[in-house]
């Protein structure tokens, strides 16, 4: 089913067709024809407007039908616009959560870096009492060395404490 009934886009034309009718009373058949909808949908649309019965057929005043169609078109449009915005909001929230759960990587790190130990730190990385030194040629190399240091600290915090506070 389309988000918005197709007849909503042709409401002005439908109103002109209804005004062109020789009689002010509208029945289900007329609603079917002008809206290009099925029998059941025409009955559903017409039902709230029916103010007269001719046999088993419900009849509604043309102006009441037009006003009802205008309310439906506005209501349908507003309803579907709210649904569209809700879906958009849900998608944005999903993307936001994914970004928080999987933050952007600053530097590609080899798997070996997960098990980084102090003895295997890259050249140019040193930790002494009150001082951390990282020597690098490029920003990427700096990030790689900082990551290696962070992983070494995470894997052996006691050694970091000893190196960073050791008196020479």
Mind telling me the CATH class of the largest domain?
A: Mainly Alpha
Strand content: 5-15%
Q: Assign the structural class, choosing from mainly alpha, mainly beta, alpha/beta, alpha+beta, or little secondary structure.
A: mainly alpha
CATH topology of the largest domain: Recoverin, domain 1
Proportion in helices: 40-55%
Strand order of the largest sheet: 1-3-2
Put simply, the count of helices is: 6
The shape is rod-shaped
Major sheet attributes: 3 strands, antiparallel
Poorly predicted tracts of residues: none
How many domains comprise the coordinates? 2
CATH architecture of the largest domain: Orthogonal Bundle
Mean pLDDT: 86
Number of DSSP strand runs: 5
Tell me the distance between the termini: 78 Å
Our Rg estimate from Cα atoms comes to 36 Å
- What is the N-to-C order of secondary-structure elements (H for helix, E for strand)? HEHHEEHEEHH
Summarize the structure in short:
The chain is mostly helical. The protein has six helices and five strands.
Please explain how this structure is put together.
The protein is mainly alpha-helical. The protein has two domains: 6-100, Recoverin, domain 1, CATH 1.10.238; 111-165, no CATH class. 54% of the residues lie in helices and 12% in strands. It has six helices and five strands, in the order H-E-H-H-E-E-H-E-E-H-H. The protein has helices spanning 11-19, 28-35, 39-46, 62-101, 139-155, 157-165, and strands at 25-26, 50-54, 57-61, 125-128, 131-134. The strands form two sheets. A three-stranded antiparallel β-sheet has the order 1-3-2. Strands 4-5 form a two-stranded antiparallel sheet. Helix 1 packs antiparallel against helix 4 (62-101) and helix 2 packs across helix 3. It is rod-shaped, with a radius of gyration of 36 Å. The termini are far apart.
């Amino acid at each position: 089913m389309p988000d918005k009934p197709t007849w909503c886009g042709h409401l002005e034309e439908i109103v002109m067709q209804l005004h062109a009718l020789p009689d002010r009373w509208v029945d289900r058949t007329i609603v079917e024809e002008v809206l290009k909808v099925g029998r059941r949908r025409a009955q559903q649309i017409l039902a709230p407007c029916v103010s007269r019965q001719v046999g088993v057929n419900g009849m509604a005043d043309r102006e009441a039908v037009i006003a009802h169609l205008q309310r439906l078109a506005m209501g349908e449009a507003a309803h579907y616009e709210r649904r569209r915005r809700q879906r958009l909001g849900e998608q944005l929230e999903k993307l936001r959560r994914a970004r928080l759960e999987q933050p952007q990587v600053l530097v590609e790190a080899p798997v070996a870096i997960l098990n980084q130990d102090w003895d295997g730190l890259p050249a140019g990385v040193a930790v002494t009492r009150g001082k951390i030194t990282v020597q690098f040629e490029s920003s990427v190399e700096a990030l790689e060395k900082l990551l290696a240091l962070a992983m070494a600290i995470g894997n052996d915090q006691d050694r970091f404490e000893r190196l960073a506070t050791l008196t020479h």
